[in-house]
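Below is one record:
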Amino acid sequence: MTLQLTVPNMACDVCAKNITNAVKALDSKATVTADPKTKQVDIETETAETAIREALEQAGYPASA
């Protein structure tokens, strides 16, 4: 499943790395592309979207649709 999320408070590469780590903690095989310039995160994962959103929120990066 591919998710496209917007993370408004992703400001830099460190933020992108933290987002990637939060997703990988749930699904180590996930593919994550996070772009701080566009605030866009593309995730290829088998994990449910609700779980991904919850993990991002817990990491301090709540996502919008």
In short: Residues 2-58 form a domain with the Alpha-Beta Plaits fold (CATH 3.30.70.100). The mean pLDDT is 96. Helices lie at 13-26, 49-58.
